[in-house]
């Protein structure tokens, strides 16, 4: 992009009214790692920037009259189409140089959206990280005004992301793994009915290691968060496995009070 063209576009943005351009808090942003689980793969929702071709995590800014939690739910509702999302704040990213020379500035200028001037994005931004757990089949990925693609990518296929988004993703995964040591996982990632093998595979995928089948079943049943159904998985080649669903009351209690032991 030529410097003259950039200056012209920046001038157009500066002509927007003060009310329009001052609706966001300065220097505060949020970045979200959205995890889904499908075909025994842990997946992450990412966006492709229209102009630069960069891949980014879903994110956004905070309106002056809302909390950071409300902002995160607002951003993810637009990206996923879901109203109720399991969402947890996991870290603050505050490296002084993390957002300098942001390559997305050109996308912001060319979008013609109502933002402050381009230099606003080149300043320091402290980002609050959130991770979300969603049921893959319920999500309808939607790109924003700066992107042309919003899609699921297998965790092990994630390449180079913009700025420090790889660091944010890795920290989110680290936090998710830590959650397994004291809270249950699965209700937000699996369909309503699932097999014990599918639940174990979810844990193995998150932890990045194999778990003993019998030990896993014994331990997960001891938590009393599952209900065994009088149904089996249909259409499988071998003996049809039994189906389970979560006991939501006990699951919520385990989220609040915690679990014991390590995987």
- Beta strand %: 25-35%
How many DSSP H or I helices? 8
CATH fold-level assignment of the largest domain: Nucleoside Triphosphate Pyrophosphohydrolase
- How would you state the average pLDDT, rounded? 84
Distance between the termini: 51 Å
- Per CATH, the class of the largest domain reads Alpha Beta
Pfam family, one: WHD_NrtR
Domain Nudix hydrolase: 25-177
GO molecular function: hydrolase activity
Keywords: Hydrolase
Task: Note down, in words, how this protein is organized.
The chain has 263 residues and is α+β, with helices and mostly antiparallel strands. The chain folds into two domains: 3-179, Alpha-Beta Complex (Nucleoside Triphosphate Pyrophosphohydrolase); 194-257, Winged helix-like DNA-binding domain superfamily/Winged helix DNA-binding domain (Arc Repressor Mutant, subunit A, Orthogonal Bundle). Helix content is 32%, strand content 26%. It has helices at residues 3-14, 18-21, 68-80, 105-111, 165-179, 196-207, 213-222, 248-257, and strands at 24-38, 41-49, 55-56, 59-63, 86-93, 126-133, 147-154, 194-195, 226-232, 242-246. Strands 1, 2, 3, 4, 5, 6 and 7 form a seven-stranded mixed sheet that branches. A hairpin with a 5-residue loop joins strand 2 and strand 3 (55-56). The longest helix is centred in the middle third of the chain and has 15 residues, at 165-179. The termini are far apart. InterPro entries: NUDIX_hydrolase-like_dom_sf, NUDIX_hydrolase_dom, WH-like_DNA-bd_sf, WH_DNA-bd_sf, WHD_NrtR. Keywords: Hydrolase.
């Amino acid at each position: 992009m030529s410097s003259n063209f950039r200056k012209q576009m920046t001038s157009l943005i500066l002509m927007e009214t003060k009310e329009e351009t001052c609706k966001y808090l300065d220097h505060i942003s949020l970045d979200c790692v959205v995890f889904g689980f499908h075909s025994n793969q842990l997946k992450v929702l990412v966006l492709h920037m229209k102009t630069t071709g960069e891949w980014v995590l879903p994110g956004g800014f905070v309106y002056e009259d809302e909390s950071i939690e409300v902002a995160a739910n607002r951003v993810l509702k637009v990206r996923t189409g879901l109203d109720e999302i399991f969402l947890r704040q996991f870290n603050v990213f505050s490296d002084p140089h993390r957002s300098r020379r942001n390559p997305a500035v050109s996308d912001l200028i060319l979008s013609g959206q109502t933002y402050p001037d381009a230099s606003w994005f080149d300043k320091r931004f402290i980002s609050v990280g959130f991770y979300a757990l969603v049921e893959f089949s319920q999500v309808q990925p939607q790109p924003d005004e700066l992107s042309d693609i919003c899609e699921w990518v297998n965790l092990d296929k994630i390449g180079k992301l913009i700025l420090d988004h790889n660091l944010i993703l890795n920290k989110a995964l680290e936090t998710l793994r830590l959650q397994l040591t004291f809270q249950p996982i699965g209700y937000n990632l699996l369909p309503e009915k699932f097999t014990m093998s599918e639940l174990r595979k979810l844990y193995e995928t998150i932890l990045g290691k194999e778990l003993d089948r019998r030990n896993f079943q014994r331990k997960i049943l001891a938590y009393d968060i599952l209900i065994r159904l009088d149904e089996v998985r249909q259409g499988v080649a071998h003996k049809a496995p039994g189906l389970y669903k979560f006991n939501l009351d006990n699951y919520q209690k385990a989220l609040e009070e915690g679990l014991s032991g390590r995987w």
